Amino acid sequence: MRIFNRLLMALVFAALTVIGAFAAIYAFNLFGYRLSELPLSGRVGNTPFYSGLKNFVGAVTSGALSSLEIAILVVVAVVGLILLLAELKPPRPRHVRLGKRGTAATRRAVRGEAIAAARQTPNVLWSSARVKARRRPGAKVRLKAGVRSGEDLSAARSELRDRVSGHLERKGIPLRKLKVKVVEAEGRQAGRRVR
Amino acid sequence: MRLAATIAVAALATEGVSRLGSGIYAEAATYGAGEKVEGVVVKPGEVEVHVVLSYPLLAPVPELAEEVKQNVNPLAKGREVMVVVEDIEVGRG
Q1: Please, how many CA atoms are within 13 Å of residue A164, restricted to the half-sphere of its CB?
Q2: DSSP state letter for B76
Q3: Is residue A195 domain-resident?
Q4: What is the rounded distance in angstroms from the CA atom of residue A59 to the CA atom of residue A61?
Q5: Position A92 pLDDT exceeds 90
């Protein structure tokens, strides 16, 4: 279904590009083509849709669009672009690949290990982690931890980084990227007893 | 269904495996008439085995997953085997 959607989107995008190019050529009187000479006549030319379209195109070329119409056109264009990019972007795998083909770990398992390592670090009162799987083996881990106020934050960050990466390495969980954020926390925020 | 049950037994027999996982967002199971095998999803060309490992780990996680895969592979009847480590837990196995 995804492949079908992509092909469909590619065709729609190609059609819109061609139509857009023609519209620009006719609207700005390029290469001798004029809007008034559009090859539409007879039954098509007499329909309300055509006359409405002609009025609209006339308003576009003369710059007489209302602010509401401009806003609607911008929203439609932005939504279309977002949908197109979202569809073209390949999906991220659900699980973290462990290196060898056919083996993976859930993000929850990796998160649990990262948090366990962070909680063994001195002065860390609480920690949380977000794990993203990558197409290649390895996980991207974002760790956030709270340390006692007054602690050296950069030293704590460095120690946390070493502990978490070392712990995951010992467990054999490949780490692609580790981001550590350390903030000062109050004692009552602790996830464990503060001595 | 029998294939899923056989694979489940083989996966559970691997040292270091505490139990079979049941999936996180959707249930990982193979369904039959009035019964199901949790932790094994048999698809036309693939078998997905969800395992929970037990602490202390006998080997690094990828090695244990590979061991499960080696145990399951001969039973999968040509299907590709995917081993998913769902969690690592203490106190069981």
Answers
A1: 34
A2: S
A3: no
A4: 6
A5: no
- Chain segment A15-70, per-residue pLDDT in tens: 999 999 988 888 888 888 877 777 665 666 677 887 888 888 888 888 888 888 88
Q: Which residues of B fall within a CB distance of 8 Å from A100?
A: 62, 65-66, 69
What's the whole-number average pLDDT of chain A? 84
**Residue A73 belongs to domain spanning:** 2-88
Closest chain A CA to residue B23? A106
The number of domains in chain A is 2
**Could you tell me if residue A159 is inside a domain?**
yes
Same domain, A62 and A108: no
**Cβ–Cβ contact B58 with A under 8 A:** no
pTM metric for this prediction: 0.67
**8 Å CB contact of A100 and B62:** yes
| ipTM value | 0.86
| Residue B55 pLDDT > 60 | yes
Instruction: Note whether B65 contacts A104, CB cutoff 8 Å.
Output: yes
In this structure, whether the domain defined by B2-89 belongs to CATH 3.30.70 is answered with yes
Residue contact A105–B66, C-beta within 8 A: no
Mean pLDDT of chain B: 88
